[in-house]
């Protein structure tokens, strides 16, 4: 299996080896209370999927994303213990299996799943990333939807053509918290899924829209990476804009993709390289995105 296939299988949670890997790594979960009633949920002991959020109140329990399918029973047990009762509502930030993989398991326990229209359409074609057909969202939206839960407002907003074509950002204005889904990989090169409707310009626009909502006290939960703030996210956006500008100049000079990769234009950002999105893969994403533009 080549690197690209390994990457996609791991990211989407579709590899048959994942259950064994999960068992070997003894992956568990931890919840950190960011503000009263809102927790950031992360995998411990290995890759448990993207960062999730749990909203716990007297009336309802809601979640943002639900990790990988093989880990769904462990995750459900953890969040049920943390919340003290089952999860009523689930919001998927996008279609990938490291964020929607637990859908089927949660739905079988009575959780109602919400997502953008495009997520349901993609999962109808291939329900694997949602853990199977039972994991399809049953409530969808186009531009957004607002939850009024536990005396708290949660605004779910669609960000078009960003990480994918079905991304949602969740903003809690009263708590001053934003969950970005994979529109933020804090401190890391981002994965911009060109094959599922993502674009670099759309990703940049979405990050800027999130920053426009934030102030210096906003707590920002990224899809991957540690909890951050407006200054931290601004640095991530500045790096992406600089990286795009470097690659754009080489594309404008008529260089081929292979020649641009060989030139290593993103060398100064090497510290953001990681196992899924290497410097080379980030460079290729930027080249392919620019070459696809009219």
CATH fold-level label: Metallo-beta-lactamase, Chain A
- Overall pLDDT, averaged? 92
CATH homologous superfamily, by name?
A: Ribonuclease Z/Hydroxyacylglutathione hydrolase-like
* End-to-end CA span: 34 Å
- Content-based structural category: alpha/beta
From the 3D coordinates, which CATH architecture would you assign?
4-Layer Sandwich
Globally, the shape reads: globular
Strand content: 15-25%
Q: From the alpha carbons, calculate the radius of gyration and give it in angstroms.
A: 18 Å
- Number of H- or I-type helical stretches: 10
CATH class equals: Alpha Beta
What helical percentage do the residues reach? Answer: 25-40%
What is the total tally of β strands?
A: 12
Strand order of the largest sheet: 1-2-3-4-5-6-7
Low-confidence stretches: 1-24
What sequence of helices (H) and strands (E) makes up the elements? HHEEEEHEHHEHEEEEEHEHHH
């Amino acid at each position: 299996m080549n690197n690209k296939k390994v990457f996609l299988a791991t990211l989407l949670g579709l590899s048959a080896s994942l259950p064994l890997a999960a068992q070997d790594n003894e992956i568990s979960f931890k919840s950190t209370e960011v503000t009263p009633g809102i927790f950031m949920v992360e995998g411990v002991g290995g890759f448990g999927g993207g960062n999730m959020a749990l909203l716990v109140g007297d009336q309802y329990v809601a979640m943002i994303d639900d990790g990988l399918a093989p880990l769904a029973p462990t995750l459900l047990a953890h969040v049920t213990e943390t919340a003290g009762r089952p999860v009523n509502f689930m919001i998927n930030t996008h279609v990938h299996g490291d964020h929607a993989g637990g859908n089927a398991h949660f739905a079988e326990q009575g959780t109602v799943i919400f997502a953008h229209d495009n997520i349901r359409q993609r999962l109808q074609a291939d329900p694997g990333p949602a853990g199977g057909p039972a994991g399809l969202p049953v409530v969808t939206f186009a531009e957004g939807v607002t939850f009024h839960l536990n005396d708290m407002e949660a605004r779910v907003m669609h960000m078009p053509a960003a990480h994918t074509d079905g991304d949602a950002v969740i903003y809690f204005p009263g708590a001053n918290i934003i969950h970005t889904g994979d529109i933020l990989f804090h401190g890391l090169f981002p994965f911009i899924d060109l094959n599922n409707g993502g674009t670099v310009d759309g990703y940049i626009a979405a990050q800027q829209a999130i920053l426009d909502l934030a102030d210096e006290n906003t707590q920002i939960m990224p899809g991957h990476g540690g909890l951050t703030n407006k200054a931290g996210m601004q640095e991530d956006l500045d790096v992406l804009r600089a990286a795009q500008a470097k690659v754009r100049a080489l594309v404008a000079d008529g260089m081929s993709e292979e020649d641009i990769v060989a030139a290593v234009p993103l060398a100064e950002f090497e510290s953001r390289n990681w196992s899924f999105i290497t410097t080379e893969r980030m460079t290729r994403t930027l080249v392919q995105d620019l070459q696809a533009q009219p």
